[in-house]
Write a structure and sequence with these properties.
Blueprint: E1 8-12, H1 16-27, E2 31-35, H2 39-58, H3 64-72, E3 74-77, H4 80-84, E4 89-92, H5 98-111, E5 117-120, H6 127-132, E6 140-144, E7 154-159, H7 165-177, E8 181-186, H8 193-209, H9 215-226, H10 232-239, H11 241-255, H12 263-270
Parallel strand pairs: 1-2, 1-4, 2-3, 4-5, 5-6, 7-8
Antiparallel strand pairs: 6-7
Length: 287
């Protein structure tokens, strides 16, 4: 299980994270199959990859030939069996529901040989429980990418008590091959990044809710005062308020009331104000 000898990858889920992960795998030279149950999601994901590659050409960060080669290595399918046939690595990026991920890893574990690296992109769910559903749980790790995947440098490699040293090393080496900076963390609630990021984001929401300052000024405080590349409320809009609510609820159950979601987050999700993807969150994206 060596990253440099991996030739073929499957990414399961064509949403925001899935199509981004497929983008960087294909750009790094791997034949990549992007799977989703919905053809519309695949079409949208592939269109986003093309758009992001085109922007890279416009900014002279890659050549036309590199763009075309990346697209040639990337295919889409609604057939899970076809997606995973003969692959060296599978990265799962389906919706953040534990029962869905455990069912999927049960299917992957029975269909794929023990030397295939299985990774989940979950940002908060317990990977130990996901791995337990798969045959050979020692080859299961977390590979938590960040949005937008083709620009963000961090990959959080999460190891469970069952993860083999070979699987962890392969995930780290694959992250480097993709041009990322990996960190290795234990399978603990929220890992490192989600736990810290959610804590800051929830406090920013409480300040907004209490009228301490506008969303723009709260974000500006963190960007200009602390060097954040993006403020916590704008980041919440980019990630999705529904996603952040789900993570916060999970962390509140695991770690206590300090992660209890503020009412403003619950209210916005109930109204369908999910951030950039819905056109409104803490910011008006339609404008």
């Amino acid at each position: 299980m060596q990253a440099n000898s991996m030739n073929t990858a499957a990414v399961l889920g064509a949403g925001t994270m899935g199509h981004g992960i497929a983008h960087v795998l294909a750009q790094a030279g791997l034949t990549t199959r992007l799977f989703d149950v919905a053809q519309a999601a695949l079409d949208k994901g592939l269109a986003s990859v093309r758009s992001n590659l085109d922007k890279g050409v416009e900014k002279q960060k890659l050549t036309v030939a590199e763009r075309d080669a990346t697209l040639a290595r990337l295919s889409t399918t609604t057939d899970l069996g076809a997606a995973i046939r003969g692959v060296d690595v599978v990265i799962e990026a389906v919706p953040e529901r534990l029962e869905l991920k455990t069912k999927l890893f049960g299917e992957l574990g029975s269909a794929l040989g023990a030397n295939v690296l299985l990774a989940t992109n979950t940002s908060s769910l317990p990977i130990t429980r996901i791995a337990a559903a798969a045959a050979h749980p020692e080859r299961v790790v977390g590979m938590h990418f960040f949005n937008p995947v083709h620009l963000m440098k961090l990959v959080e490699v999460v190891k469970t008590p069952s993860s083999s040293a070979d699987a962890v090393r392969a995930a780290v080496e694959l992250s480097v091959r993709l041009g990322k900076e990996p960190i290795v963390v234990q399978d603990a609630p929220g890992f490192a990044s989600s736990r810290l990021g959610i804590a800051i984001g929830l406090e920013a929401m409480r300040m907004f809710e209490a009228g301490v300052a506008s969303a723009e000024d709260i974000d500006k405080a963190m960007v200009l005062g602390y060097g954040f590349p993006m403020g916590p409320l704008k980041l919440t809009d980019l990630v999705g308020l529904d996603v952040r609510l789900s993570i916060a609820e999970h962390l509140a159950r695991e770690l206590g009331n300090r992660f209890e979601p503020p009412q403003v987050l619950r209210d916005k999700v109930a109204k369908g104000e999910l951030g950039k993807k819905s056109g409104r969150g803490f910011y008006d994206w339609k404008a």
